[in-house]
Amino acid sequence: MAQQQYDIIIVGSGAGGGMATYQLANAGLKVALVEAGAYYDPAADTQRTQLRYPWESPRRGASTRLRPFGDFNACIGGWELDGEPFTNKGDTDFRWWRARMLGGRTNHWGRISLRFGPLDFQRKDIDGLGENWPIGYDDVKPYYDKVDQLIGVFGSNEGLYNDPDGFFLPAPKPRLHELFYINGARKLNVPVIPARKSILTKRINNERGVCFYCGQCSRACSIHADFSSSTALIYPALRGGQVDLYTNSMVREVTTNAEGKATGVAFINKETRQEQHLQGRIVVLAASACSSARILLNSKSPQHANGLGNSSDHVGRYLHDSTGASRAAFLPDLMNRDMYNEDGVEGMHVYTPWWLDNKNLDFPRGYHLEIGGGMGMPAYGFGFAVNQYNEFLGERVGGYGNALRDDVRKFYGSRLSIACRGESVPQYDNYCELDPTVVDEWGIPVLRFNYHWTEHEIKQARHMQDFMEELLVASGGILLGTKPGADQEYGLTKPGEIIHEVGTTRMGTDARSSVTNEYGQLHDADNVFVVDAGTFVSQADKNPTWTIMALSWRTCDYIVDQIKQQNL
Amino acid sequence: MKTLNRRETLKSLLLAPLAGGIIASTGCATSTGATARMNWTALPDSYSYGRTAVEMQTDAELMQESYFREHELLTIAVLCDIILPSDQANGGALDAGLPDFVEFIVKDRTNFKLPIRGGIAWLDVYAIENFGADFINITEAQRLTICDRIAYPDVTEAVLQAGISFFALMRNLTLTGYYTTAAGFKDLGYQGNTPNVWDGVPAAVLQRHGVAYEAEWLAKCVDQSRRDITAQWDDDMKLIS
Lengths: 568, 241
Known about the structure:
Strand content of chain A: 15-25%
Oligomer: heterodimer
Shape of chain A: globular
Order of helices and strands of chain A: EHEEEEHHHEHEEEEHEEEHHEEEHEEH
Structural class of chain B: mainly alpha
Largest sheet of chain A: 7 strands, mixed
Shape of chain B: elongated
Number of helices of chain B: 10
Helix content of chain B: 40-55%
């Protein structure tokens, strides 16, 4: 039987791969979508974790190795995967999150959906560090506009230059602790605006439901009222009949011919452990920044001896993740709360975008602040250190008996927390490469990470800590814990921990210092594209998902156009 | 979803000295002769909540494993009952199946195994030295005397520190194990985890806390009466539906 020749082979079903599947299938092209994990639909009761009570789990929602964010979390994956190791060189401590399921990481993220702004594409012009993107906000804006309307995102038009307006759904009203934060931020002249999240507070079509405010997007929504790649993009694409879905299929390499052009992919069927091949005219990599880099580096041939797309030796280089730091406070004003359903949407309803000018600061690049607190559903960990806040009230900590019930009610919902997410400066010396000696269970060479924060990120974290303290106190909070100092890099998260890794196949006009052109097309093989965050030249102080999807859509339009012009 | 209550399966262990193999029997312990029973609600031994095949197998294996000796389980039951008694309307630790929960959680989070086993042993040695029998075989008043000494982290007496750490761990697990049951939800008054339409903090609550919604902010928020009308925007990105 002659093997089917696909127009497009897409590797990975997360934000970038889902958008490419949707766009290219809708353009009438025959698509193979290859995913390393299993099929997943949160609407299927056998896979549903949403609206379950903690006692439906023997561990009451505690984390497991297979679900590090709690065992009701939708994302099957984690920092450590059976049979799929990675390594760190020297004192590098990179954390690499991988999802193994249809929809990838879009099943568990916080749905924070922020456009990059005009400044975010030209950071080198501003501070002389890193590199400018080969494109600007005006190139991407039409796609952000289309993503907003196709996927749905709530927020508000604020007229902020670098946090651009969009086609927003209306925002949910703030919760009580968020009103305290708003008041605190106002005192310090720090802006605070409605959060921007891809959750349907209002109907956008007849296929997806409208949010019913369980606050559990991280468990994936059974009525598809939040965005995940599978629910909003892949299921509709599958219904069109143009897509063959290959699950449990671990891509090893992109195969190439004597001209150095891609001919398809070789993958391991994880159920049979057999290697299979798919043939296609165009290969679109969307396996995540590091996984796509790994596939390229493993795609060695006489024409691409250094790995596919790697004549520049830049595949894997400029790997960077967002910075992060957090702090919490006890709000005495919120003791002994009145009880009502405050679940709302997952996570924050309000946030603070970056508001300062780095000219007056000792570090480059900014960060945004995410606000936490409220009367969330008890899960494993609830009641730990039950009355530790008694120390602030001059009362005794500890004890036993029914008095603890009063303590639980007294302090429930009285915590306010802030998490900062910031922009790091991409470094040539922060990279992933193939480990020369280690393979995974299918014999595929694994990635080895080399990554160190620089003084830029450490100084930024110091600023985060100082400002979080000011904001928490201004909001009426009593600070919890102690401020991490220089010895702890000011509480700066480990690289990889924020799960915003980008930059490994960055785009550019110079084939000697970039891997793809502005459309994610490899300089070295014109029928191979990258549509995950690998192409990012710099990761703004924004979450990457919205930009991944905008750029993926832009690439798809380019592919369709180039096919029409018979250039592909 | 299963609700725990007293009418369900009970587990029951006799609160009496054991024949051998525990610290008490090798020490100078004497029995108080108490033969009260410890009863608690049995927790399910299988669960179904969207698990993968690998997870189902992992959890089934954990359920099969037996970690605590009967004496240890009894001690856990006695301690949990002291920490959260069952004399209240919404029951307490034993109604919430705490010994079963602790048993599962130490198998799942294996770093708890040693602190709890060692903590129980510490408690027995302390009870024997002070009251002549292991913890479950001294009088209730004597047990509470010990708890009064180890239930507070501000106690600095060096000899008690291991006991204080152990008691804090048991208090954490007891409260978490109780407040993650239906009875605990009721005791707390938690009202979420159910489809609803969030329309802001109730007015009386805003008033009580001296905060208010600004009109300008509310203008950006969803009009819940129009949530089911399909979104449309004008060319200036303004929502018009």
